[in-house]
Write a structure and sequence with these properties.
about 40% helix; alpha+beta
């Protein structure tokens, strides 16, 4: 499931669906100056929801504060929706881990969500980039080149 250990895994996420479950496998390499590399793996497992359950869970999400996300919070939310870890988001945006953590707290409060999955669902419905009329539109978690294939 993880592939060969010879693959270079610089902060990546693999998603597999097996029966009624979604497995997300996160891989993170910690490199040290002496050449040693520690590879960490962790897995999140969630149940695939039926379409009827999806409709119900969408209605059950709290409304949040109604305040719009700042540009920085929106960038963080989009990266989290792609499956990046807090550390990977911090590295990509060149900010500290703690800054990302504070942005996530604000995002969860403003969006009225309590988990990454709820945030992902919220982003699918509310991110302006998910409107086909938007000039930068593409499905959450995919680049424009992936969508063209």
């Amino acid at each position: 499931m993880l592939g060969s250990e010879r693959d270079h895994a610089e902060n990546r996420v693999q998603t597999r669906v097996i029966r009624d479950y979604i497995f997300k496998i996160y891989t993170y390499d910690q490199r040290y100056s002496n050449g040693i590399v520690d590879r960490y793996h962790w897995i999140t497992i969630s149940r695939v929801e039926s379409s009827a359950a999806n409709d119900r869970s969408g209605e059950a999400l709290p409304a949040g504060t109604g305040q719009p996300l700042t540009k920085a919070e929106l960038r963080v939310a989009r990266l989290l929706a792609k499956g990046l870890t807090y550390q990977a988001v911090a590295d990509q945006l060149v900010v500290s881990y703690h800054t990302v953590k504070k942005h996530v707290q604000n995002i969860y409060q403003k969006c009225g969500v309590n988990s990454r999955f709820q945030l992902y669902r919220w982003m699918e419905r509310n991110d302006p980039k998910n409107d086909p009329a938007h000039p930068e539109w593409h499905p959450v978690g995919k680049s424009r080149t992936e969508c063209r294939k």
